[in-house]
């Protein structure tokens, strides 16, 4: 369970105070996947950085499984739009990075092998990130995050830099892996389609300063052939309307 | 390892130097420019008994000087690059002392540390350490902030920041700085070996000159160049190794 109460984030740019997030309150149940959607610059990523412990300067309270945010004590998997791989490490070392730091684990275990195979990157272990396609790099990042067995998975527009075909392929792959583990997930996106496909609940943000406009139950979650169904069409119209009103 | 192209280029370069040298020797016919073949024959003759020991001394001083400069300069630069506060204190100091012609300090260093090895090493270190400090610092500053995000979310401490990101990211730049420093170090070495010692290539060349033994003198110059070439090549190979990911 993640409890966010009255979260407000301000920062200074050229002596001007800018409010990135204003009075955000939400509870995210354990094992749920929440997609956060909103216009660009609405503070979605800021929200994620606060949850991951990267941004420490905020007002309000956040508790992850009733403890304050502390990346040293918690297991947080972070997957970023630019993949967050270290270019000087090959695929093997990049996927190992999380468990190496968290568990002091030096070699790939059975679960790791299983994940790499499932993600289709088991053959690429000696490659460097620059030798991989964007889709392959993001598979490596997903492997790294799941290998940690995280209590919280944070994803910041992870598929938005990929082409449409690769994106849908990875969304499906991600959802399959996610179903096996049911990790509590915060998924940031700016795509209505992605929000509907991946979110058990959908949180709609207002333009800057980011506030929560609405939290919707997503009836489309876990549907087969989602994109050809009527509910999908209805929900996407509803979402677009909320977003437009802002 | 280095490509065949590199070795072919090196061979052509060497041939060109020998041809020009030979042409000058033929045209001028003066004892101060002996033909390359006589220099080579003399070199083979004197190297084992007379010159080898001088080369060892010079090599030892170069390696010691560069090692000390790296051991002090790289950590200083990395700390300045990572911690703004360290940078604020040390940067003005570095900028202030960098432009001082260190050779001007030679009399003071000789008074304080004597005429022996210590002052020679201190001279080399003093002159090359600044390039190494500044390059290391700038290399850290050039690392995109995003790189640190994944590690921060894993709760990694400063130790991991250095071992997983800062050191691997800057290694190639540090080696480039080392290569630049190498050229400078060889020329300073020559200068410092002209006094207070009876060993080293600098001494050997100056001594041969005083004795008007041009064959020995040219032999010394050839060996000094070869030493430089070999050291440069070693650093080149190391640089290729550590920047395989680029």
Please mark out the parts of chain A with pLDDT under 50 across 5 or more consecutive residues, or reply none: none
What is the CA–CA distance across the termini of chain A? 28 Å
Number of separate strands of chain A:
10
Unreliable runs of chain B, pLDDT <50, ≥5 residues? none
Q: Give me the CATH architecture of the largest domain in chain B, please.
A: Orthogonal Bundle
CATH fold naming of the largest domain in chain B: MetI-like fold
- Largest interface, C-beta within 8 A: A-B, 30 and 19 residues
Give the percentage of residues in beta strands of chain A: 25-35%
Question: Can you describe this structure in just a few lines?
Answer:
The complex is a heterodimer of chains A (246) and B (246). Chain A has 246 residues and is an alpha/beta fold.
Give the topology.
The complex is a heterodimer of chains A (246) and B (246).
Chain A: E1 2-13, E2 16-28, E3 33-37, H1 44-51, E4 59-64, E5 67-68, E6 76-79, H2 91-103, H3 110-118, H4 134-147, E7 152-156, H5 164-181, E8 184-189, H6 192-198, E9 201-205, E10 212-217, H7 230-245
Parallel strand pairs in A: 3-8, 3-9, 6-7, 7-8
Antiparallel strand pairs in A: 1-2, 1-4, 4-5, 9-10
Chain B: H1 4-28, H2 36-82, H3 84-97, H4 106-113, H5 117-141, H6 146-153, H7 158-192, H8 201-210, H9 214-242
Helix pairs in contact in B: 2-3, 2-5, 2-7, 2-8, 2-9, 4-5, 5-7, 7-9, 8-9
List the defining traits of the structure above.
heterodimer, A: 246 residues, alpha/beta, Rossmann fold, 2 domains, six-stranded mixed sheet, four-stranded antiparallel sheet, 7 helices, 10 strands, globular, B: 246 residues, mainly alpha, MetI-like fold, 9 helices
